[in-house]
UniProtKB/TrEMBL annotation:
Pfam families: DnaB (PF00772), DnaB_C (PF03796). Residues 195-457 form the SF4 helicase domain. The lineage of its organism: Bacteria, Pseudomonadati, Pseudomonadota, Betaproteobacteria, Neisseriales. This is DNA 5'-3' helicase. GO terms for cellular component: cytosol; primosome complex. The keyword Nucleus does not apply.
Amino acid sequence: MSAPHDLPYDELADVNAQALAGYLPPCNVNAEQSVLGGLMLQPERLHDIPVLKSEHFHHEAHRLIFAAISRLVVACKPADVISVCAELDLRGELNAVGSLGYLGHIAENVPSAANIKRYAEIVFEHALERGLLIAAAEISDLAVERSGRTVAERQAEAVRLLSGIADAAATDSGPTTMAEGVRRGTNEIMDRMDRGDALGGLSTGLAGLDKLLDGLKPGDLIVIGGRPSMGKSALGLGFAIAAGLNGQTVSYNSLEMQASKLSKRAVAFVGAINLTRMKTGRMTPDEYTAYTVAATKLSDAPIWIEDRSGQTLERIAAEARTMKRKRGLVMLVIDHLHLMPIKGENRAQALGRVSAGLKELAMELGIPVVLLAQLNRDSAKGGAVRRPTLPDLRDSGAIEQDADVVIFVHREEYYDPNASVGEAELIVAKHRDGEIGTVRVGWQAECTRFIDTPPSWSLKQKAAAKRWQEEEL
């Protein structure tokens, strides 16, 4: 089957002709015509090819015909040759597809409407091939671009282009019926019942927080907010260490601390070692033993630290996609949002773009993304000792909107010398998929880590804290 020579469509219609210069764009006219002809004979078969969209057709005339058939089917109207012709004429598109004669031609010459799924696969595969050619041409342009963007930024853009091709190839990403959603949900519930007390997500390393959150869930953006020196980085590092020591691949992106310094904190965290004595080489014999054990454990943990400067959203996303593909990334931690480079934009809007991009990345990769963020300076104005709230997130209300979970770190002893030493509050101020609340934990400043209860607490204090936590949760 072939199209009439006088068919009024451009052979490169709606395809980046410049990008494909020198190539014969992959397409199969016969397959495109067979899909359309089969649908005009059996319009109900449209439901058998949900992956196919009008943009997958190479020729503009075929795109218009497919769109017309789709509109008619969705409206529960006939989609035969005459009906499709009338629909195109109503929109002033009939001349662009070669009039009624061409519609009749493809309907009469379809080999078999029963094979429409295979014809659709051929059309879809050629659309992906054209997309690859366009992406390849654009990546070639990026390689020689001299517009001021760095190589890293251009590499990130290249990864984004390829990722877009991969997304387009995912044929199972269409809408889900309620029946399918219920089926999946039931399977998840039954799985949880079979696993007993197992968490629904990754452990934070803190039992009380795990109980409230049910772990860190795939696809969630978890924001850890706090004023300076509250322990945001310690909490984020604790999340990464808990997953890493469990054999799960984690990427820790630090915008304010070198990998060597961060690793020292990690060893002090795991070994419960005085960080100052460790850094100055004055560890006790017991601490040195603990250092050796902790260093060995961490060396075997799949935790990757990225400490290069200029970590933009695009660069972080590109590296996360690569790590997901190569190493099976299960968690991404970013320390912190307000140190990410912002160029020529309103700061609040720019930070909102970053938080939205990280939420999309979490859903795309199916991992929890942990984002550390500063609070507004006014949140502690005049030395007032008040617990942080959602409006205190610095510069952008979009952060609150994009986050699935917001955890504030608060240590009253930082402001009040009469407050109990070694205690902290982890305030879950937003929890899209569950309850909010406050978890009291211990804070060991000497090794910069949070624990479930301070070791200095008496049995009576621990029992009281446990009762309080159970009541709170």
